[in-house]
Amino acid sequence: MALIILGLIVMIIGIVIARNPSSIQRLGRPVKLAGIILMLIGLIAASVVQIEAGQVGVKKLFGKVQPDVLSSGLHFINPLLAIVDLDVKTQNYTMSGIQDERASAADDPIHVLTSDGLEVVIDLTVLYRLIPSEAPKLVQETGTDYVDKIVRPIARTKIRDNAVYYQAVELYSTKRDEFQDRIFKSIETDFKERGLLLEQLLVRNITLPQSVRSAIEQKINAEQEAQKMQFVLQKETQEAERKRVEAQGIADYQRIINQGLTDKQLQYEQIKAYLELAKSQNSKIIIMGGGSAPIILDTKN
Predict the structure, then answer these.
(1) What b/e readout covers 6-33, taking b as 16+ CB neighbours within 10 angstroms?
(2) What domains does the chain contain, in order, with CATH numbers?
(3) Which of 36-45, 67-76, 91-100, 255-264 has the highest mean pLDDT?
(4) What pLDDT, on the 0 to 100 scale, is given for residue 47?
């Protein structure tokens, strides 16, 4: 557009010069021609627009938003149109206590009240994108700063509205997924009405009050100690059972041996022992008593 205006100015200057009777009159025609060339170049440049990948172009004519959009690629358009480029790729809005993860100071973690009156701090990320066909409506009704006007206020409000249905410990443990799904459905509806598609909602962290955290830690420690004692008791019970079985086995063995050995067998085993003793290199005298224990004398002593 700037080249068209510049070319128009140069062409007017050329016309004025051509009508001047002075010596510069001969320059009027070349100047006028240069102006026409500039206007043509500007007209061609203004009629061609390139939309980058992952973007759409919204057309505005004298401030009025046109209903159709330009997809990515090269387009020939009315040179009087103004094009507003909008990103349709996935974007994220993060509320976090970590400063580097926030886009602005307004994106701090959200403090909510639960049904039991406790204050819980929530870190959350919203993944969303612009619906291409809804881009003209979004520009006309909201403008291009839809993050501040739609995403931030709706996300934060819906989190607060839904947190009151849960107790603090439930949000932290058993009903965290249910809470996340409930927020998702609530935000999704409002986003869609305004031309945004909610892709995913991630509850990244839930921080409980210190008093609640201490109570939970004490409960966990008590449960772990109880499990430890249960393990020790089970181990001792198993050890006692093992010893009982071992003692029973020894008793059974002795009973079987005692029942199986007769006097003749005992005498036979005794004789075998005497024979082994007699084979010893040390000289010994064995005195066999009648039914009494034998007396063994070592002749070397």
Answers:
(1) ebeebbebbeebbeeeeeeeeebeebbe
(2) 2-87 (no CATH), 91-208 (3.30.479.30), 264-298 (no CATH)
(3) 67-76
(4) 75
